[in-house]
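Input.
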Amino acid sequence: MRIFSNKLIVSLFSLVLIIALIVFSPLQKLLDISELIENNLFEFTEQGDFDSDITIISSANINKFEFNALVQSIRGMNPSTIAINLCGSSVPFSDSLVLAWTGQGIIVTSCEELPLSPSYNTSTQIVKEFNVLPSENSFELEILRNYNPNSLNALYNRGLNYELINFIIPTQNFEELNYESFLNGRTTKKKIESKIVLIGYLGEYMLDNEIDSIASYRTPLNRSLWRPDENKMYGIEITANIVQMILDSNFLDEFSDILRYSIFALIIGVCAFLLFRIPIIYFWIVGLILYFVLTFGELFFASYLLSTHNLIIGSTSFQIPFIFIALGIFVYKMIKAKRPEYNSH
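Output.
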């Protein structure tokens, strides 16, 4: 009976320890599969040679007159489409200025989402999707209607109300220029002609956190889990990602729910089988190892799907079912261990 009592104490302590490690650990942010997928550690769409239809030009550190002169200089280089995001720029929102640009066929949005609204969803902590509907007042879709309306057919044929953004790294894949490039004549016509030219804030206000906070967002390309204010992507860069993704018809698809839950049930079943087979004294060690294998296994699997098949796995959290299954098996093993025929061995 003393042996059984010692096993009971050790096992109860072990079970409490594994639950505490899973639920209350300071590493929870690192272990949460949903957070890991949303802050994907893998740059799954990084490309080497990328021929972009888009050039991005910074609107920071210039006044209203310089801004207008910049726009006119760009128009003289025969771009296909000019689109301006005034959010974060040094130019105050001006109805007359926007009206003049609109009359010249230039597409404009602002922090007030006027006259058009950015389609990317900023209501979540991490920007990872954009709204397809309503499409009439969408900044990004208006750009495409102006540049290549046929490119929208594939988007509309999918019949979805929202799409996941297939992010690429802006600084490696889009031409990014500033106002000084135009002043000094360093911008060649090749970088502008027949392209989509996006003008917006690119973070030159190094000490202006207020502007940075309204013009930049976290995305799945963030590598830093510990410093959420670092490595943000600016709104105009998110616009570039959305536009390029639709032009290339390079959409992300959700992993099938039926297949996802089938795999999930199979994995949990294997874990339950292993927990049933091990001695109760080693229960917490095996349980903790299984939890780590499951967590990082799903992360790597999600990354593989993203990198090879443009699929994204839903953020199915298995922490709670895993804890309940582990607890159920533990209780069963303790009841079985309490039987005289079991203790006699």
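The two ends are 13 Å apart (CA to CA).
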